[in-house]
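Whiteboard transcription, Tuesday session. T.W. wrote the structure tokens on the left side:
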């Protein structure tokens, strides 16, 4: 998922080789959407922290890696990260809440990001956002009641000349009208 426009948030991620199944963390078949126990989550976070903590600017790579492996940054991992980096819990929490990319709860099966930056806003982005909220029955940073779709804002996808634009499960789409949005959603939900 993109965090375009947010300085520093796009730090490269070194994939952490964490075997959630061996920790008992994984439940179900998709680790991105499973809900590990608090203890298993903390063990996974500690392993990820161990991979990055000695490198400069370790916080963002750690947070990206935790979200990549666990599907979100569960609240119980915040203290693990803070302790390892000698920071306060509030500091780590502040970074997590600053970047819209990071989430504290697992996403739905699909993630729909709607561009909220200026070019898209001036070319129908607001109407598209209203339409998406209505269609999905949820607001930004929330997931539809059936758990299918999480709606997120994004700040420029590099498609300004073809706005308004959206990203669905990492795939960008340009010139998205409300009708096109409906068609795209039928595709992901079918
Ligand atoms: S402002 Fe939306 S893609 Fe650039």
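and on the right, the sequence the group agreed on:
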């Amino acid at each position: 998922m993109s965090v375009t426009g947010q300085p520093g948030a796009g730090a490269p991620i070194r994939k952490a080789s964490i075997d959630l199944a061996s920790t008992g963390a994984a439940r179900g078949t998709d680790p991105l959407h499973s809900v590990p126990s608090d203890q298993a989550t903390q063990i996974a976070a500690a392993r990820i922290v161990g991979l990055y903590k000695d490198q400069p600017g370790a916080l963002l790579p750690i947070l990206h890696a935790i979200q990549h492996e666990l599907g979100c940054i569960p609240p119980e991992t915040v203290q693990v990260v803070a302790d390892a980096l000698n920071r306060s819990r509030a500091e780590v929490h502040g970074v997590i809440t600053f970047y819209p990319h990071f989430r504290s709860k697992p996403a739905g099966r699909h993630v729909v990001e709607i561009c909220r930056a200026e070019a898209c806003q001036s070319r129908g982005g607001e109407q598209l956002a209203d339409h998406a909220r209505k269609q999905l029955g949820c607001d930004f940073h929330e997931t539809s009641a059936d758990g299918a779709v999480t709606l997120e804002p994004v700040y420029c996808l590099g498609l300004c000349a073809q706005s308004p634009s959206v990203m669905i499960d990492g795939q960008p789409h340009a010139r998205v009208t409300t009708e096109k949005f409906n068609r795209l959603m039928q595709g992901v939900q079918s």
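Someone added at the bottom: Residues 115, 117-120, 156-160, 163, 165 surround FE2/S2 (inorganic) cluster (CB under 6 Å).
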